[in-house]
């Protein structure tokens, strides 16, 4: 249970990153499946090379931002459709990770991670993950909340909301997309970096299906809480992510082989995507009757 | 001498359709608009009115010829860059505002038209008073909806908001692209009256496309008639005063 909450917090950062593109710019950014494990790969490699975990985590974020920038350049300057741009970068990142780690996974055994700095604080086991998760989530939520309320952030939101209007008001929409994709993938890479440090290893295959998990956090939050203001929506993603991890925990408790978890991830997301439509249909019928 | 705000020199836009022959949808148009001019643009479907506007705003690039704003060559500038000179109201009420952002957020976006958007707080609260005053002058209840997403407003309210947004910082050139066409007659009339009032009050330079012949006669000091991508006829203020709806309608038939 505590484990799931901790994981839920770390993975909610992924959801917050995906929110920046999926809900503001209105497209699912496939780069996430590459930038998530990339963050882990870069940070873990850096730590094994003797770099302090804090700058190592920052390096992971920067790597993710570069990945997002690459997708953004393909999309805005190269005019490649955005889903395809993301897939191209995601696929290319497999080689990048192999180049960074020199193998498909890398262990952190006998190296210090972020959580080791908290071990002296007398926290019970696994609570260190929650504490790190809370700090990181708070930082990202505050950053996003602040960003969305800047002149720049408002231009970013307008770009996703009505691009032709945004252009007619002098908003450089291509730059906004580049900025959004970079920040988004930086945040996603942070999530990957923290997860890798929590699990004790980085693994190239960790990215498979993460976009489903990220979207699930966003959509569960929306279905459960309904209409919300911006700040509340960000918090709803965090709650949605924890809720999702608890659902998965429930599935495991039912005795399902953990090798088959991905189909349940997708099923949970599909269910929450379909749910609102069923309830509105019913509502419409009632209204008529 | 009054300064020239907009100048088109041999403005031409060629399209190469996949199944149709190459043709000029804008064909060597020459036009000078001076400060304070209010030019009404008439023309049938496919006459090139929208292409004319899109070429001026930069959402379309000319194949040949030049666009000059304030005597500066802007033919190669993108729409985002030309936005510092141009305020634009679109025909479709959905086009001119950001639907998920509130009325005041939209207005705030417009106050920064053509300016750098910084990584600093937008300070919406400081503008609220001014936004309230601006919107309450219109008389369609917009001031009560400052914190409502524009997606929930009526078409008339959105077009009025678009008009305010286009003129909240004084544009060198205002483009009105059939901005009353999607509205019911009563709402269209009051929006047109509001438009004229704002243009006079701020001495704006304006180009307006319309299909309402009465409006074409009532408003503006110049009238041009586009046909097949060319300026077919042009009427000065004096000539315009003699025009009748019947005469204009006949010209359309030609």
UniProtKB/TrEMBL annotation, chain A:
Q: Which InterPro entries match?
A: ABC_transp_permease
One Pfam family of this chain: BPD_transp_2
Q: Which GO terms describe its molecular function?
A: transmembrane transporter activity
Extract the CDD domains matched here.
TM_PBP1_branched-chain-AA_like
Q: Which PANTHER family match?
A: ABC TRANSPORTER PERMEASE PROTEIN YPHD-RELATED-RELATED, BRANCHED-CHAIN AMINO ACID TRANSPORT SYSTEM, PERMEASE PROTEIN
Write the protein's name.
Branched-chain amino acid ABC transporter permease
Q: Per the UniProt record, which residue ranges are transmembrane?
A: 6-25, 32-51, 57-75, 82-101, 130-148, 204-225, 234-254, 260-278
Instruction: Identify the main location.
Output: membrane
* CC per GO annotation: plasma membrane
Where is it localised?
A: Cell membrane
**Secretion signal: which residues?**
none
Q: How does it sit in the membrane?
A: Multi-pass membrane protein
- What residue ranges carry the coiled-coil annotation? none
Q: Which UniProt keywords apply?
A: Cell membrane, Membrane, Transmembrane, Transmembrane helix
Automatic annotation (TrEMBL), chain B:
- Swiss-Prot/TrEMBL keywords: ATP-binding, Nucleotide-binding
Protein's name in the database = ABC transporter ATP-binding protein
Q: PROSITE patterns, from UniProt? A: ABC_TRANSPORTER_1, ABC_TRANSPORTER_2
Q: Could you state one GO cellular component term attached to this entry?
A: plasma membrane
Span of domain ABC transporter: 6-253
In the UniProt record, the signal sequence range is none
Q: Name one Pfam family in it.
A: ABC_tran
Phosphoprotein found in the keyword field: no
Q: Which GO terms describe its molecular function?
A: ATP binding; ATP hydrolysis activity; transmembrane transporter activity
Tell me where on the tree of life, at the top rank, the source sits: Bacteria
Organism for this UniProt entry: Vagococcus elongatus
